[in-house]
Amino acid sequence: MIHSFMIIRNAEKMVHELLRGFPVVTITGPRQSGKTTLAQAVFSDKPYASLEDPDVRQAAIDDPRSFLDRFPDGAILDEIQRVPDLLSYLQGWVDADKRMGLFLLTGSQQFGLMSRVSQSLAGRTAFVELLPFSGDELQEAGVEPDTLNEMLFTGGYPPLYDRNLAPGNWFAAYVTAYVERDVRQLLQVQDLETFQRFVRLCAGRSGQLLNLSSLANESGITHNTAKSWISVLEASYILYQLRAHHKNFNKRLIKTPKLYFYDTGLLCWLLGIQSPEQLVTHPLRGSIFETYAVAELKKVFFNRGERGDLYFWRDSNGNEVDVLIPIGDKLMPIEIKSGRTVTRDYFTGLHRWLNLAGKTAGDPTLIYGGVESYRRNKIKLLGWNSISLIGDGL
């Protein structure tokens, strides 16, 4: 499906707001998530310099002061991680100028970008993390896939919505480019096959507790290697760890994090799923839907310039709540079920947790595989295409 117009990003409003109070805003996120497009939409009237371009990069390296002097009213500096030393000069430049909203930087975090930017531009830059399209961004633009299975299968990466590409072909190229370029540079992975197997084994565990020992054993690598590979995949916004909430509620707690991918299109490709129809009976369908719902919740926060500290809760008896969102001194419990028909047992975990949590419980919510959103016995139900509405209650 090709759409030549630009899909407006929810984060755009936040970037404009931050530029009023900071001289620099840094947009980070996975490769191909639309960082450059967002920067150009916000700074449509300012110069653009890509540090991926060898000539531009060389100019910035050879004479950073003269390079920055080319932009008296600021600019977009794309892929800033390519010339990290430029950041120190940029600090002096914006300190001398004293105006707000001068530069938009974009970059991939995995090369230590965040720590370099934080050190060099402490107090001078705000950060916005941009993930692939959210369901409501696609909805607003009128290009959302028709069914839940199509949505899960395609995912949200922008190139899939502006080029005539089958998801399988695009993800194959994306993973190759990503693995060969980024991971090899970072980890000096000699054995690419082992790393690819590791990523696929992670995909099979999305939505599950992370057992590093079994993951390492199955991949044929050490526990420490598995740990470092996970952290690189996390820094690259391929996957992330959802932490267990620390509050006890009178039971022995499970403290292991759960593993989730940020994009279900990539997840489906890694799992070898070749069509949306395959998802109907796929044994991991529940985990894939849960992955989608949790990623959509992350996007709600990221698009508002917030970290979005989500948790889950599980005790040693197997009682569990899929997501807990801290709001003030309360915790909003969220249960995620992939079925389209809401049954009574969907509410069991929520009711049990509400009894345990007492006054600390926030507004309970059930996200499910249907499309209607309504309330039932004080519990808010959100269909798969309305997850962003959670933001109205935050």
Task: Describe the model.
The protein has 394 residues and is of the alpha/beta class. It has 2 domains: 11-129, 3-Layer(aba) Sandwich (Rossmann fold), CATH 3.40.50; 134-394, no CATH class. The chain is 40% helix and 17% strand. The chain has 16 helices and 14 strands. The protein has helices spanning 11-19, 35-42, 54-62, 64-69, 86-97, 113-120, 135-140, 148-154, 159-162, 167-187, 192-203, 212-219, 223-235, 264-270, 285-302, 348-357; strands at 24-28, 48-50, 75-78, 103-107, 125-129, 208-209, 239-244, 258-261, 311-314, 320-327, 330-337, 365-368, 374-376, 379-383. The strands form 2 sheets. It has a 9-stranded mixed beta sheet with strand order 6-8-7-9-10-11-12-14-13, sandwiched between helices. Helix 16 links the parallel strand 11 (330-337) and strand 12 (365-368). Helix 12 packs across helix 13 (223-235). The longest helix is centred in the middle third of the chain and has 21 residues, at 167-187. The chain starts with 10 loop residues before the first helix and ends in an 11-residue tail after the last strand. The mean pLDDT is 91.
